[in-house]
Amino acid sequence: xxxxxxxxxxxxxxxxxxxxxxxxxxxxxxxxxxxxxxxxxxxxxxxxxxxxxxxxxxxxxxxxxxxxxxxxxxxxxxxxxxxxxxxxxxxxxxxxxxxxxxxxxxxxxxxxxxxxxxxxxxxxxxxxxxxxxxxxxxxxxxxxxxxxxxxxxxxxxxxxxxxxxxxxxxxxxxxxxxxxxxxxxxxxxxxxxxxxxxxxxxxxxxxxxxxxxxxxxxxxxxxxxxxxxxxxx
Length: 233
What we know:
Elements: H1 4-22, H2 37-46, H3 55-65, H4 76-85, H5 87-102, E1 108-119, E2 134-138, E3 142-153, E4 159-166, H6 171-183, E5 199-201, H7 209-219, E6 222-224, H8 229-232
Parallel strand pairs: 1-5, 5-6
Antiparallel strand pairs: 1-3, 2-3, 3-4
Helix pairs in contact: 1-2, 2-5, 6-7
């Protein structure tokens, strides 16, 4: 297993090489930021590592352990602003890194959705994401307000693509959009990743013979899921 310093160095080199070759980030007017583009993207991707429970948890770690590698690390609010300003580049490079880490072609990818709460579902008012976030149900956290994230993951754990919709969006419509954009790429929707010729393994939320036929016929996406209990018995 790589230590953190080696991992960060390797991640930075991959990010910087990709950014330079694809010119993902254009220069912005005004004074230079405290971190360069590659540093911002590297830290933003590293912050999503499973060991961190929140942005605050990541920043505490960065202040305590990463100052040597990133001596110009700004305060947390400024770093968050920098990360938001590079959101599109972070998204594109994160997906490309997942594709690079796949290595040998795999026979399947797991496809599943998860809850992305943005505020307490019991709060009054519409919130700042009115018209985009709404109320939905999650088996893990119950009723929540926010979004539903759909992600494709290959066996090693690398995320090969993702998309999201409002919390009330069912899995099949999310999958429909995901497969459609993978089959016909759009430059503004790069997060879904590249088309995949293998099988998507899902849970029962994606069941439906008609959906499966349409996804295979229209997008070349073969979907399998466990049999319902009534069928198994």
